[in-house]
Specification:
387 residues; alpha/beta; VC0802-like; Rossmann fold; 2 domains; nine-stranded mixed sheet; six-stranded mixed sheet; 14 helices; elongated; binds adenosine-5'-triphosphate; binds magnesium ion; RNA-binding; Rossmann-like_a/b/a_fold; cytoplasm; CCA tRNA nucleotidyltransferase activity
Length: 387
């Protein structure tokens, strides 16, 4: 991409009133971090962030990285050109011709009111030159294939021919952090991605039940999280030793209730981690109706153990759409590597689809789970996955 600068537009941020300035400063910081190592200059301004580029290669790499930064609605690559009328005509016409498009229009604005041409004059100047030099070109004011925008400023002219859609959402870090329950399956990585693209930071927790589950799942999770590091450069993963709790559940709880109680234990642990690490929510890859533990009745009984908001970004998604998204973000091929999850290993033949809270409380009173939860939390070995 042979351009001189990139303009980053904020989108939804503009609706945020008083928080706007803080959001822009967080986004500017995130943009600087995303572009670190490239020789660019980044300046946060009132309605856009201006990135000055130093070469063609940098432009392509910068755009690629910025497409993973939440809070950006669009990126407009642009060009700088001197204010000499002849130079502007030549440069503007060349951009139109090089685009290969057949219909175009020019839009101009002037901050420099002393410029010899008014806005209409600038449009005519460039359009006439392009029409003279280009074969088969025509102006279409209503549905042009290309719109060339020109701003005549004090120092120079800025030109741009279009924009690239960004992720949208909010700047990462501006709307808090969630504790994400991450399995090795297809859904939870997509759920984690959905949080990130909205701008919610994540810390992940995984429940491992060795020797029933294998060490290989940890590598799998690291590979999955690495694919998410363009969105959040450092991701913490707490691996919780869950075997004892799981064995206790299967010793004391009637089989149909095992999954429900197991989920309640997972959420209890996640809530303690969330509280101690400053998360504002717990999140999972659950989707309503997908399996027995994901009915609304089950979710209600599972939620009962925590007052944290429980985010389920995929709750109304169809599996086929989740699979498509997993393929798009690259996690699918990792997720389908064979693995045993503690949920699948201990899967009851007839799980309760409408569990009763009173029953859960009665079964949970049969073993000292609080102590086991403490032990499990003390046994956590955190892993950090970074770009
Ligand atoms: P996934 O594809 O994410 O594994 P799933 O459709 O297989 O989801 P379940 O196995 O019932 O569904 O899990 C539902 C959710 O519970 C997961 O999306 C994940 O958020 C959480 N979960 C399941 N197993 C674990 C685990 N071992 N560690 C952490 N979270 C888990
Ligand atoms: Mg699973």
């Amino acid at each position: 991409m042979n351009c001189d600068y990139l303009l980053i537009h904020y989108g939804e941020l503009s609706t945020k009133g008083n928080n706007r300035r803080e959001f822009i400063s967080i986004l500017t910081r995130n943009v600087k971090r995303a572009l670190s190592g490239l020789s660019v200059e980044v300046n946060g301004r009132r309605d856009h962030i201006y990135v000055k580029l130093n070469g063609q290669k940098e432009g392509e790499e910068a755009v690629k990285r910025l497409l993973c930064v939440p809070g950006i609605i669009k990126i407009s690559p642009g060009y700088e050109c001197g204010k000499d009328v002849e130079e502007l005509a030549e440069f503007g016409a060349k951009l139109i011709l090089d685009s290969g498009k057949k219909t175009f229009k020019v839009e101009a604005s002037r901050a420099d009111k002393g410029y010899p041409l008014d806005s209409y004059g600038v449009c005519r100047l460039i359009a006439d030159r392009a029409l003279k030099e280009g074969k088969g070109l025509s102006v279409d004011l209503h549905h042009p294939e290309l719109t060339l925008r020109v701003q005549v400023r004090e120092g120079c002219c800025y030109l741009s021919t279009g924009s690239i859609k960004g992720l949208g959402g909010y700047p990462l870090g501006s709307i808090g952090k969630a504790t994400m329950l991450l399995s090795g399956g297809i859904d939870s990585p997509v759920a984690a991605y959905s949080l990130l693209r909205r701008g919610i930071k994540i810390e992940c927790v995984h429940f491992a039940s060795p020797p029933y589950t294998s060490e290989a799942v940890i590598d799998k999770l690291k590979d999955i999280l690495y694919l998410l590091t363009p969105y959040q450069s450092d991701i913490r993963l707490d691996v919780v030793p869950f075997t004892k709790i799981q064995e206790a559940i299967y010793e004391h709880v009637p089989e149909p209730y095992c999954i429900t109680i197991m989920r309640r234990m997972m959420v209890r642990i996640a809530a303690k981690l969330a509280a101690s690490r400053g998360s504002l929510a717990i999140a999972s890859g659950e989707s309503i109706g997908q399996v027995a533990s994901q009915t609304l009745e089950s979710m209600q009984v599972i939620n009962e153990v925590t007052s944290f908001p429980f985010l389920r970004p995929l709750c109304v998604s169809d599996k086929v759409d989740v699979i498509d998204k997993a393929k798009e973000i690259g996690t699918f091929d990792i997720s389908i590597r064979p693995f045993e999850d503690c949920c699948t290993i201990f899967k009851p033949r007839h799980p309760k689809t409408k569990p009763d809270l009173a029953h859960c409380l009665r079964y949970e009173a049969l073993f000292d789970y609080e102590k086991m939860i403490e032990e499990a939390i003390n046994g956590i070995s955190p892993i950090f996955v970074s770009r």
